[in-house]
Amino acid sequence: MTNPFLDEALLARAHAHAADFLRTLPDRPVVARATRSEIVDALNVPLSRDGEDAASVIDALASQADRATIASAGPRYFGFVIGGSLPVALAADWLTSAWDQNAGIYVTSPLASVIEDVAGRWLLELFGLPADASVGFVTGGQMANFTALAAARHEVLRRVGWDVEADGLPGAPRVHVITGAESHATIDVSLRYLGFGTRTLLRVEADAQGRMRPDRLHRLLENLSGPAIVCAQAGNVNSGSFDPVGELAAITNEHKAWLHVDGAFGLWARASHKLAPLAAGLELADSWSTDAHKWLNVPYDGGIVMTRHPRSHRAAMTSTAAYIEHTTGAERDGIDWTPEYSRRARGITIYAALRALGRSGVEALIDRTCTQARQMARLLAREEGVAVLNDVALNQVLVRFGDDDAATKEVVTRVQQDGTCWLGGSKWQGKGVMRISFSNWATSDEDVERSAAAILRAWAATRVPQSA
C-alpha cells in the first residue's frame, strides 16, 4: 500500500537542491544578483485550476535560490547580527518540519514539550540565571521583549492591586516605563503593542559608548512614584556595549521597579569566561530576552524570553478554552509562556545546537567571532582616512570613512554591490557609519581578511574623485 506521506523522490529532489545551495555558499557572491522584476517574472505565474506537478514546483523555487537570495547564511555576511545555521541545527529543523508538531500544549506534542523544558534549563545554566526562572520560545527578539514586558506590566500593576489582564489599562495606575537613550527599536514597538504610548517613555542619558548612566536613572526614579519598568541593554545594537546592569539592578531594586534586559545578542557573552564580566550583575534583573538565530546559529525563528517571576509570566500569556487540555502535573504547556498557541516546535533546533556544541563549543563560537571583530577593526583602522568609532568590546565594529557621511554611505553601497561581503550602514551619535556585525559560526580569519580588502578597495574607489 502506498504511503501518501512519504514521497521519497520529492524529498530527495529537495535535498539535492538544498545541498547544491549549501555547496556554493562559502564562495558565492553575498549579494543577490537578480532584480525584483526578474524574480517576479520567474515566480509570478497564474494560479492554476488543477495544480502543478510537485517536482516542478520545487524545481521552480530552487531555480531562484542562487541569484535571488542574500547569502546571509554564509561566512561573509556581517549585517544585522544575523547568524548562519549550524549543520546540526539545520538538520534538526528539517526534522521539525517533518514531525509537524504544534508546541502549544503538551497533549499536542509531548516530544516538543520535553525538549523545550530541557533546552530551557540548559539556557538558564549557560547564562547563569536563576534555575527556577520561566522560559518561553518565541519568534525572535521582538516577541521576546514583548513577552517579558507583558509579564512586567502584570507584576508591577499586581503589586498595587490592579489586574491588567482582567481590567485592562483604562483607569489603571500609571506605569512609568524607562529606557536608555540607545535602546533598540523593538523595545518601543513592544511597548506600543502593550498599550504604552512611545510619547510617555522616559529616556535615560547614555555615555559615549551608548551605555545607560546609572546616576541619571537614580535621579529619575527618585522623582517618580508608582509602578515602574526599566529596560536595559546587553549588547548595544551599534557599539556592542553593555549597560552596567549590576548597578542598574541595585537602583531598580531600591525603588521596587522591574528591570528587563534586552540581550538579543549580548546575553550570549555570559557563556564566555572572557566576556562574562561585560554582563556582570545581569542575573539580578527580573527578565531577559535573546535570540538564538543570532549567536547560537539556529534557523529562524529562535527567540527566547526568561523571567524571574514565572507566575506573572504565565498570567500575562496563558489562555484557556473548554477544548484546550491544560496539564496539571510536571508537563510543560508552551501556551503558558508565549503569545501563540499554534506554533512551530522551535525549541528543537535550539536543543540540537546546544547539545552538539556543549558549553565549550558555545564559548568558542562567541570568543572566536569577537576576536574576528577586533581583527577587522585592526585591518581597517590602519588605513588612512578610516576610523573605528567604538570600543570593540564584543562583536560590533563601527567604521567611518573620511569623517564624512556621504563618503561612508558610498563605501557601504560599493561593498554591497561588490558582493564579496555584505554589511550595512547606521547612525552613531549623529554620524553616518558602516556597521559590521560578527556572529556566524563559519566565518574564518581568511574571510575577515578578504572582506577587509573589499572594504578598503571600496574606500579607495570612493576617494578617487576627491583626489582628482
Count of DSSP helices?
16
Number of E strands: 11
Helix percent reads 40-55%
Give the overall silhouette. Answer: globular
Q: Can you give the mean pLDDT?
A: 96
| Sheet with the most strands: spatial strand order | 1-7-6-5-4-2-3
Share in β-strands: 5-15%
Low-confidence stretches: none
Order of helices and strands: HHHHHHEHHEHEHEHEEHEHHEEHEEH
By secondary-structure content and strand pairing, the structural class works out as alpha/beta
Radius of gyration, in angstroms, nearest whole number? 24 Å
Termini distance?
77 Å
Largest sheet: 7 strands, mixed
Protein described:
With 468 residues, the protein is of the alpha/beta class. The chain has 16 helices and eleven strands. The strands form two sheets. Strands 1-7-6-5-4-2-3 form a seven-stranded mixed sheet, sandwiched between helices. It has a four-stranded antiparallel sheet with strand order 8-9-11-10. A hairpin with a 2-residue loop joins strand 10 (424-428) and strand 11. It is globular.
What key phrases describe this protein's structure?
11 strands; 468 residues; 7-stranded mixed β-sheet; 16 helices; 4-stranded antiparallel β-sheet; alpha/beta
Write the layout of secondary structure elements.
Blueprint: H1 8-24, H2 36-43, H3 54-62, H4 65-68, H5 87-99, H6 110-127, E1 134-138, H7 141-158, H8 164-167, E2 176-180, H9 185-193, E3 202-204, H10 214-222, E4 228-233, H11 245-254, E5 258-262, E6 287-291, H12 292-295, E7 303-307, H13 310-317, H14 347-381, E8 386-388, E9 396-401, H15 405-418, E10 424-428, E11 431-437, H16 445-467
Parallel strand pairs: 2-3, 2-4, 4-5, 5-6
Antiparallel strand pairs: 1-7, 6-7, 8-9, 9-11, 10-11
